Amino acid sequence: MNFTLEKIVTSRFEDPACQKIDAYEKTSGYQAIRSILDKNISSEDVIEIVKTSGLRGRGGAGFPCGLKWSFVPKVDGPKYLAVNADEGEPGTFKDRELMLRDPHQLIEGILITCYAVGIEKAYIYIRGEYSAPMLVVEKALREAYERDYVGKNVFGSNFDCDIYVHSGAGAYICGEETGLLESLEGKRGHPRLKPPFPAVEGLYGRPTVINNVETLSNLPHIINKGADWFSQIGINEKNSGTRMYCVSGHVKKPGLYELPLGLTCEEIIEEHCGGIIDGKKLKAVIPGGASAPVLTSKEVYEDKIKMDFDSLAAAGSMGGSGGVVVMDESTCMVEVAARLSRFFEHESCGQCSVCREGTGWVSEIISRIESGKGVKEDISTLKSIDPNMRGNTICVLSDACAMMFGAILNKFQNEFEEHISKKCCPLNSPYSV
Ligand SMILES: Cc1cc2nc3c(=O)[nH]c(=O)nc-3n(C[C@H](O)[C@H](O)[C@H](O)COP(=O)(O)O)c2cc1C
Ligand code: SF4
Question: Which residue puts its alpha carbon closest to atom 8 of ligand 2?
Fold first, then answer.
């Protein structure tokens, strides 16, 4: 396998002109969709190429992309693509940059997907706060429409594909795929019970593919360079390609890093992000957005956990959205749990009592402990709430909250106990919630 630092989706990031269609085309832009149409490559073959590449979803769950497409039934009538550009996961800022710096790469990825699945209408659902990326994507779409790369008879072929931009309104739950579909239909973003899965019954009750911006941005490169090229990058064929790690927190060089899948968390922190600031020690890392259970310093430096999908899952966490939050020894982990549980409480859509009540109780109890007013029984109460919040709800927001506080409580129970016995934050955290 190949761990060279080859840029894929960020390969045009250094050149601001690449927002525009001319610069995009000069750097092999729109070559992939052109070659599919010119060579009359069948939709089945495109799906097969994507399957062989091993590309997995970069939005959260890491589901194999080509396999997801193959679930869409070959029926007459409309089918849709919903592009997930909601990017609400705390600590995640990659889709924003992909849309700002290389919008045509996304548009080409959308065209490839629509061709492969037999879709004629795609919606890009963009996080409401992302007004600048939205303008850039809209401008790029106008350019592509003007050249007949999008719309009727794409590149003079008999393939039609319209792409629309839709703005979200600031709800995290609208990033959950079925919440997103409800929102697109003009309703409240309430996730739907599955099955039926969106591939069979999605937008307006029709078969729908939902993919993340980063997932789709990989497609032109896979078509141009081949499935084998892509599958050789990274740690193994099931964890192939690169990931955009959004690194924030106590590192010397926070930022966006496109790196091959399977580097260790230690390599990302020490070699790419310059190590921990002010000579302090690492305490914990959130490896994939707020929903991904924290890793301890021991897991990072001694167990040398790798940052690909399967290694993180085997370690009881997940790759999630690629949001990597690094916390040094001065961080109060009770405060982290309090802050994140408030987030989940605020963002719960309220349909399921387990989630609506559970996130509220957890937030209240942890905030109480954090403010020095906790009692001993609070720890056992939290431990009893945790399993009840898993696997019992319409979507996995409830599970995400339980995984988050369950891991912090298990790995840093001593900090909860100290807050209770000392009746204050022993670290005297200045960021108290
Ligand atoms: C509460 C919640 C929020 C989510 N938010 C996002 C998001 O902002 N962006 C995203 O791409 N996926 C998000 N997801 C994952 C999507 O449901 C879905 O798995 C993803 O868009 C599929 O695309 P992919 O296969 O290309 O990763 C979220 C999931 C949950 C449960
Ligand atoms: S788990 Fe929470 S966010 Fe998901 S549908 Fe139920 S109440 Fe809404």
Answer: 349
61-to-24, 197, 274 alpha-carbon distances in Å: 30, 15, 29
Give the C-alpha separation, 373 to 371, whole Å.
6
- Residue 243's φ and ψ, nearest 5 degrees, are -130, 150
How far out from the chain centre does Cα 178 lie?
A: 15
Domains in the chain, ordered, with CATH?
16-231 (3.40.50.11540), 234-328 (3.10.20.600), 333-422 (1.20.1440.230)
Q: How far is the CA of 57 from the centre of ligand 1 (A)?
A: 9
Task: Give Cα separations from 1 to 9, 228, 265 (angstroms).
Answer: 19, 11, 18
Per-residue pLDDT, averaged over 406-432, amounts to: 89
DSSP sequence for 55-72: -B-SSSS--BHHHHHHTS
| Residue having the nearest C-alpha atom to atom 12 of ligand 1 | 59
- The amino acid occupying position 168 is G
Residue 426, pLDDT score: 87
Distance from residue 404's CA to the centre of ligand 2 (Å):
16
- Pocket of ligand 2 contains residue 400 by CB under 6 Å: no
What sign results for the dihedral spanned by CA atoms 350, 352, 358, 359? Answer: negative
CA of 319 to the centre of ligand 1 (A): 12
Atom 18 in ligand 1: residue holding the nearest Cα: 177
Q: Which two tokens stand for residue 18?
A: 């690449």
* Preceding amide of 196 cis, omega within 30: yes
For the segment 259-274, the average pLDDT, to the nearest whole number, is 97
pLDDT score, position 427: 85
Q: What is the pTM of this model?
A: 0.96
Q: How far is CA 171 from the centre of its chain?
A: 15
**Helical H runs in 284-426?**
297-301, 309-314, 333-347, 353-370, 377-388, 397-411, 413-422
Distance CA 149, CA 153 (A): 8
| pLDDT at res. 206 | 98
